[in-house]
Amino acid sequence: MAATTIDDIRAAIAERKTTATALAADYYARIKKEDPEIGAFLTLCEDRALAQAARVDALAADGNPLPALAGVPIAIKDVMVTNGVRTTAGSKILDNFIPPYDCTAVARLEAAGAVILGKLNCDEFAMGSSTENSAYHVVHNPRDKSRVPGGSSGGSAAAVAADMAVATLGSDTGGSIRQPASFCGVVGLKPTYGRVSRYGLIAFASSLDHIGPFANTVKDAALMLRTIAGRDPMDSTSAEVPVPDYVAELEKPIRGSGEKLKVGVAKEYFGPGLDPEVRSVVEAAIQRLAELGCEVVPVSLPHTEYAVPTYYIVATAEASSNLARFDGVRYGFRAKANTLSEMYRQTRDCGFGMEVKRRIMLGTYALSAGYYDAYYLKAQKVRTLLTRDFDEAFKKVDVIAAPTCPTPAFRLGEKIDDPLAMYLADIYTVTANLAGIPGISIPCGENHEKLPIGLQLFARHFDEATLLRVAHAYERAR
């Protein structure tokens, strides 16, 4: 069966054209055929998936109403814990870790009838922009297997692009949903900080981490977000904010009878580092929004130039603190040693990869007594300025449009030995994480090599409804 949207699959099961069990079997056959060349999956959980599919089939056989994601094959980035299913965070230090509980987002998907196929490859502890930092294997971009899929949620984007899952979950700390979505030509949504519970997400940088969906369409992303969003008592940072019906909001017109919806364009996102073909395609997409009835308004985000250094101080400092728990004592890999201190050193030296060690050292330095004020405290102050930039811009506009990435997908190995070049690839995405606002990447065209290019949209805090509405209107017109 060729259905690749949530509505198609749910309707086919409800009308008894297929079964959730048959669908799961089809997707597993596809994974086993296609994934050896792509590397999107780390662990499959067939027993769990088939048991869930059987529950959905029983509902359908009895003629009961089906839940929103009934029978939909979904896969999960391997930084979200899954009860009884190996969860590695792409790291050897968690090679054989079997969690005793489910991440809230995963539990909510299964409660809505989703069939969880397995766990997806990622940069180790979500630290990277290419999924080349996985301790297990690299992920290849399905659109061009010589290129990266983006990171750190490269497996999540690649699985959707290769039709090995209808939708997936990823995490976004500095662009790790939107950048892979752009590189692989799919939809990737980072919600507002606090919109989706982080309970059960293995922490990289706690004030920057977000869980969000990948999908083939904006509507599917809206369905996924509607399912996983909302207050969770297990996560004190999840917000007590009502969750709209995002799918219903999609149908509201962007050309109203009153004042036009305003789309902001910030000159800071169209600087000299932007690939000319990316610029041309994104500018054409913004012009298309104008043709659909939006008013395009120039805005300024003057502190954007400080975003990458600010991000890589805040993120590494929080990573240094969060990853201190991986010490070989309670769970995960433990090196053999003669003394406790030697065991700590050997465990962390053998268990962590080079990029994780680099970020731990950078963060530890930034938090050290002599440098805390000069680095971490100053970065937090600049973060406030970046947030104020967006607040001021959103007084004038409803959404802001920008490129998702400065270039299309780069080749495997091209930047792995140049961390600074890799970090600068995040220039257009880290700002949304620092400010906590929602962002989405949607396909808007290709370059001359047929590599996908993403249009990125930002909206006010907790205004995913407007973000999705504009993205849906553009997608439908395109």
If you had to describe this structure to a student in words, what would you say it looks like?
- The chain is α/β, with parallel strands linked by helices and 478 residues long.
- It has a domain at 6-244: Amidase signature (AS) enzymes (Alpha-Beta Complex).
- Helices cover 39% and strands 13% of the residues.
- The chain contains 16 helices and 11 strands.
- It has helices spanning 6-14, 20-38, 46-61, 104-111, 154-161, 178-184, 218-228, 246-250, 276-291, 307-322, 340-351, 354-367, 373-393, 419-424, 430-435, 464-477, and strands spanning 41-44, 73-77, 115-120, 167-172, 187-190, 210-215, 262-266, 295-299, 399-403, 439-446, 452-459.
- It has an 11-stranded mixed sheet, sandwiched between helices.
- Strand 2 (73-77), helix 4 and strand 3 form a beta-alpha-beta unit.
- The protein is globular.
> Helical proportion?
25-40%
> Span between N and C termini?
26 Å
Instruction: Please work out how many helical segments DSSP would assign.
Output: 16
List the uncertain runs: none
Mean pLDDT: 96
Q: Kindly state the number of beta strands.
A: 11
* Quaternary structure classification: single chain
Per CATH, the class of the domain at 6-244 reads Alpha Beta
Report the principal-axis shape. globular
Structural class: alpha/beta
**Main sheet: which strands, in order across?**
1-3-2-4-6-5-10-11-9-7-8
The CATH topology annotation of the domain at 6-244 reads as Amidase signature (AS) enzymes
